[in-house]
Amino acid sequence: MAANLKTEVLFTTANDDRHPATNIIDGDEKTFWITSGMFPHEILIAFKGQAVNISKIRTWSFHVKKFIVEKCTDTHPVKFERFIDTELGDKNGAMQIESFQVSANQGGGVRFIKICLASGWDDFASVHNVIVEGEEVP
After folding, report:
1. Closest CA to 117 of 71, 84, 95
2. Across-strand partners of 71?
3. d(CA 6, CA 100)
């Protein structure tokens, strides 16, 4: 049965002490990570050293246009394969709440995901939540 997987943020391409990247995994829609302007921006997320089978990724964001997710099944986050590549609609200042179903073929044995905000609808974009659902590989 799918559950929210335990994640940790390893790296981001933008850092703001007032809006750290750990905000995207704290479960609070009021906290967020913000880009520094200019695109692209990346967020590297690990599954606490565990391989997982991902079934769904849910995101809450503002002003994100081109949204890409890549996966890595290796023990070190070096080689990535793109499995989500989409353009999010401009919500005119409203939160972008998205849900991406991931097939067993695409989401199996994943150790890391890299989220790329390739472009935005505004100069700055923010990510409020990233929830990854699935199960740990036994």
Report:
1. 84
2. 81, 113
3. 18
Output the pLDDT for position 1. 53
| Whole-number Å distance between alpha carbons of 96 and 45 | 20
What's the distance, CA 13 to chain centroid? 13
Mean pLDDT by 10 residues, the chain (138 residues): 84 92 92 92 92 97 97 96 96 94 93 97 95 93
| Reported pTM | 0.93
In this prediction, residue 2 carries a pLDDT of 59
Q: Which of 1, 115, 101, 114 is nearest to 56 (CA)?
A: 101
3-state secondary structure of 107: helix
Whole-number pLDDT of residue 32: 96
What element of type H or E holds 104?
helix 104-107
Kindly report the CA angle at 11 between 105 and 19, in degrees rounded to 5?
A: 115
CB atoms within 10 A of CB 95: 14
Q: How far apart are the first and last CA of the chain?
A: 13
Within 10 Å of residue 4's Cβ, how many Cβ atoms?
A: 13
